[in-house]
Amino acid sequence: MRGLVYSGINEMTIKEFPDPVPEAGWVVVDIKATSLCGSDLGSLTNPRHNRNLIMGHEGAGVVSAIGPGVTMAKVGDRVALFHIIGCNKCKWCMSGYPQFCTVDRRALAGVEQGTDATKCLVKEENCLPLPADVSYAVGAFIGCFAGTSFSAMKKLGPPNGMNTVVVSGLGPVGLCGVIYAKAMGARVIGIDSVKIRLDLAKELGADEVINFKEADVVKTLKDMTGGVGPDRLYETSGAIQAQMNLIMAAATQGIMVCVGFPGHIGDQGDAKVLLYPMIGKELTIRGSSIMARQNHYEILDFIKAKNIDLEKMITHRFKLDQIIEAMELFATGNTGKVVIDIDE
Ligand SMILES: [Zn+2]
Ligand SMILES: [Zn+2]
């Protein structure tokens, strides 16, 4: 089998590996689609990064081998991969949140080998059944950003036709939020500075967009909402300034959900600026981490009921041999979702 590793700082190589052999409770999935995620980029410049680790955590494919005792998947099953592997016994794993596992938590491309490869070894409970009418690319999305956005929308109410949802940051996580919020009936305002992303947000359902490099974001959001401010705020960029802008613009008793980690550890923003409006306007501000594993089924039902085609977020597709070129393009920020199709 072959997979993409970060062989040095800003250096990528496709390497040969022995085919994985599944032990009890584990399965091998032949990857059919893997997609590039903003979080893939950070490790590229990390000097402590494991040079033998296959990257990628958004994958879907077909089960090709199962270990002893496996009952949740069988050879030939189409599956999307949930990319956090937990102990499957603690209270968080049992409630579908292996990302909070305190016993044995491992991430694909973090500890275990990732999905930018022809094969991937995962635990059976990480295989989310993928119906025949849902593409492998969409399956790859659900295990990461499409699940993250869905879970965040649920925490925003979910929003409905009486809400104005601001989506801050129009990378794939934000664009997916635009699609969901629009399908849920809300008015949607997108914020970014990259033209292709602002255009894509409008195509995917944003009613209005704001280029934060050209406009006073807080004033514009207030102006767009009759001085009241938006009442549902979805922050995906992780930029401190963006988080502060949303808090300042938020309507009284607004709800804000953040999924973007602040870019620099130690850069905590101005707590005073954040807390005064939070208390004064009775804001609800909370974080959201990926999704509950069972959200998979809700997402499938929702996108089917609302006739949502998440493939519309894809701007570029490549083969595995072109993945380095794909990563270089993705790193420029001038893309929507980038998918690697694998058929070998
Ligand atoms: Zn991801
Ligand atoms: Zn656990």
Q: What is the overall shape? A: globular
Corresponding CATH architecture of the largest domain? Alpha-Beta Complex
In CATH terms, the superfamily of the largest domain is: Medium-chain alcohol dehydrogenases, catalytic domain
Q: How widely separated are the two ends? A: 9 Å
What letter string, H or E per element, gives the SSE order? EEEHEEEHEEEHHEHEHEHEHEHEHEHE
Strand count: 17
Tell me the fraction of residues in β-strands, as a range. 15-25%
Q: Structural class, please?
A: alpha/beta
Helical element count?
11
**Radius of gyration from the alpha-carbon trace, in angstroms:** 20 Å
Short characterization:
This protein is an alpha/beta fold. 28% of the residues lie in helices and 25% in strands. Strand 16, helix 11 and strand 17 form a beta-alpha-beta unit.
